[in-house]
Amino acid sequence: MEKLYFGSATDNPELTDAQYCTLLSNTKEFGQITPGNSMKWDATEGTRNTFTFAKDEAILALAERNGQKVRGHTLVWHSQLPISNGGFDNATLISIMENHITEVVKKWKGRILHWDVLNEIFNEDGTWRSSVFYNTIGEAFPGIAFRAARAADPSAKLYINDYNIDGTGAKSTAMYNLVKKLLAEGVPVDGIGVQAHLIVGNVPSTMQNNWARFASLGVDIAITELGIRMTFPADAAGLSQQADDYKNVATACINVPRCIGISRFHPYKYSWIPAIFPGQGAALPWDEDMVVKPAYAAIAGALT
Ligand code: 9MR
Q1: What is the pLDDT of residues 176-188, one digit of tens each?
Q2: What CATH number corresponds to the domain at position 29?
Q3: If DSSP states are collapsed to H, E and C, what string results for the chain?
């Protein structure tokens, strides 16, 4: 199957940085953009049933001007969620969730390649993550969410996205089993998003097999938030290992026909990593001055 893009996330505050925008807009580097925050619930429906779309419009406009595809991220997530405290009965929360999905997806109908309908719904051991959606609606919430998204934009491919489902393991198996069950019920799931927040020297050797296992369900695979972080300072050995690691990720995607594209997350200068994992970062093929690192040639070599 054809590969559709190598892409990047971005966020509105970064768009004032001209040097960065030039790189982001270079379609020889990036064929796709993911808004890192501006399509999330807190950005689009900060107050119940009041929708704001200016930030996402700015990113969509940039991508469309450049001729880049857009992944919509994300509709139903436990985080950045103003209604996370709950207090709703089942029917009320279903209608809040359906209304959110319908309004946001309808707004950008025809302009979004993929939607991450669900994000991060599993614990590491493969059990359901506690969230207002699971705790109130139970195991029915994924099917309801996918059906609402399909109805709002039949042309967008619909994804379930998570981290630590890169290689095999309990969480990957939970993803496999849920998607299998949803498909058997006729729920419109088109793809599994593998975030791929990886660590230098610790990239799972089972990635390719795991993605092939997902693909055997009849869905696409997208690598959605790729970064391979290391402990600062980034030394020559780390950079060389990182190049090998990136090559392995790109090769695994090439070798799995239904792996349709790779997106990386924000560049180091704007990365979320040092805030969450102090002392770590340097996760991308460009350094903070946007100079290519050894990983860049390794990825290019694997993809061509
Ligand atoms: O990149 C996003 C960062 O700017 C936000 O502060 C953070 C807050 O939750 O979310 C980041 O993106 C996350 C993504 O939406 C889902 N996967 C994990 C990413 C890193 O936390």
Answers
A1: 999 999 999 999 9
A2: 3.20.20.80
A3: CCCCEEEEEECHHHHHCHHHHHHHCCCCCCCEEEECCCCCHHHHCCECCECCCHHHHHHHHHHHHHCCEEEEEEEEECCCCCCCCCCCCHHHHHHHHHHHHHHHHHHCCCCCCEEEEEECCECCCCCECCCHHHHHHHHHHHHHHHHHHHHHCCCCEEEEEECCCCCCCHHHHHHHHHHHHHHHCCCCCCEEEECCEEECCCCCCCHHHHHHHHHCCCCEEEEEEEEEEEECCCCHHHHHHHHHHHHHHHHHHHHCCCEEEEEECCCHHHCCHHHHCCCEECCCCECCCCCECHHHHHHHHHHC
